[in-house]
Specification:
With about 400 residues, this protein is α/β, with parallel strands linked by helices. The protein folds into two domains: about 130 residues, Aspartate Aminotransferase, domain 1, CATH 3.90.1150.10; about 240 residues, Type I PLP-dependent aspartate aminotransferase-like (Major domain) (Aspartate Aminotransferase, domain 2), CATH 3.40.640.10. The chain contains 15 helices and 15 strands. The strands form four sheets. The protein has a seven-stranded mixed sheet with strand order 2-10-9-8-7-3-4, with helices on both faces. It has a four-stranded antiparallel sheet with strand order 11-12-15-14, covered by helices on one side. α6 links the parallel β3 and β4. α14 packs across α15.
Length: about 400
């Protein structure tokens, strides 16, 4: 079977955050939306078929997650990430962002310090601040076109008494796939200072050719003992609307604390169709993923080449994973508000502000490449035209 990733699927008027909130987010409708991290590709047929089959039954009452549901997750991790997990380790969450908040609530107290590595997925910040915890930055370093960890700074911040570290692996927005050596050094620091690791691995399946994802918890028994891993089929299979993800915890004490919180909040029941979709995705998704990665890799290569040849004033950071492109726009010499207005008002392309990803994001933009290539060509053409006009106007002054 060949999946058609070139198909343009109209998404307006479907209550789509990406499309139907353009006026609210960007102030205008005529914007190519390349921001929020979902894909413009059709959810694969085997998932749609599974949901349709379940929908034939006329009762959508209370349900539980079956052994097949758990087995699909276990087998997927073993086949694709060489990670042997047990059913007893797997917990449900309605999403990765809720899981981050659950972990903060379950494992830390108000006033505790939590380390983040900006520029990074911005819900990390609110999950800390909204619960009265203290955000501690361990900024990544942009070196030779890659965002790298600063271990000297991490050890310094860890020594100041942090209780938890939020890890984004693979990294969003920079696309770094952390190597075993990098992860080992980070874990060793956390072990030295008794710091729990919450590893957001939602992009773990979206690794581009030439790279390999290493689950943090697989480094050693000691690493597994301090790591809470968050995964979901939502990015891989375009299922964000299904509100189904998993939290994998091998440490029994940490399991009990997580379970206690979930029972207090009464959010563990889950989404009937989300469970059906998740099971189908993990049970049958290898061929889809193989073709998806090939297409996204083609999009990345096309965009990188276009920027290099036609828009040299913007440096696109080559991602090792995800379908995001981290754009260094600092040579444009615009502040963050001016940069936002330029792309929205002059180019008509809606992206995420780099500054929203925290320290180190100033002067950057995040571009979503999970769309048909013709959409990328249209967006890049708009950006090139706008920059050419901008430069011509500057020369005349």
């Amino acid at each position: 079977m060949h999946y058609n990733f070139d198909e343009i699927i109209p998404r307006a008027s479907t209550n789509s955050v990406k499309y139907d909130l353009r006026k609210k987010i960007f102030g205008k409708e005529d914007v190519i939306p390349m921001w929020v991290a979902d894909m413009d590709f059709a959810t694969p047929d085997f998932i749609v078929d599974a949901v349709r089959e379940r929908a034939k039954h006329p009762v959508f009452g209370y349900s539980f997650r079956s052994d097949d549901y758990f087995r699909s997750i276990i087998n997927w991790q073993k086949r694709n990430h060489n990670w042997v997990i047990e059913k007893e380790w797997v917990r449900y969450s309605p999403g990765i962002v809720p899981a981050l908040n659950f972990c903060v609530m379950a494992y830390t107290d108000p006033g505790d310090k939590i380390i983040v590595q900006p520029p990074v997925y911005f819900p990390f910040f609110s999950a800390i601040r909204n619960h009265g915890r203290v955000q501690v930055n361990n900024p990544l370093k942009l070196e030779k076109g890659r965002l790298n960890m600063d271990f000297d700074n991490l050890r310094k911040k860890a020594a100041e008494g942090a209780k938890m570290l939020f890890l984004c692996s693979p990294h969003n927005p920079g696309g770094s796939v952390w190597t075993q050596k990098e992860l080992t050094e980070m874990v060793n620091i956390c072990l030295d200072y008794n710091i729990l690791i919450v590893s957001d691995e939602i992009h773990c399946d979206l690794v581009l050719p030439g790279y390999n994802h290493k689950p943090t918890a697989t480094l050693s028994e000691a690493a597994a003992d301090i790591t809470i891993t968050c995964i979901a089929p939502s990015k891989t299979f375009n299922l964000a609307g299904m509100a189904t993800s998993s939290v994998i915890i091998s440490n029994k004490t940490l399991q009990e604390k997580f379970d206690t919180l979930m029972e207090q909040l009464h959010v563990g029941m889950g989404n009937l169709f989300g469970a059906v979709a998740s099971e189908a995705a993990y049970a049958k998704g290898e061929r889809w993923l193989e073709e998806l990665i090939a297409y996204i890799d083609g999009n990345v290569r096309f965009a990188l080449d276009f920027f290099e040849k036609n828009i040299p004033g913007i440096k696109a950071i080559r991602p090792e994973a995800t379908y995001m492109l981290w754009l260094d726009c600092r040579k444009m010499e615009l502040d963050d508000e001016q940069l936002w207005k330029f792309f929205v008002e002059e180019a008509g392309v809606g992206m995420n502000k780099g500054e929203s990803f925290g320290e180190g994001g100033e002067g950057f933009m995040r571009m979503n490449l999970a769309c048909p290539r013709k959409t990328i060509k249209r967006a890049l053409g708009r950006i090139k035209y706008a920059i050419d006009c901008h430069m011509n106007a500057a020369r005349k002054k």
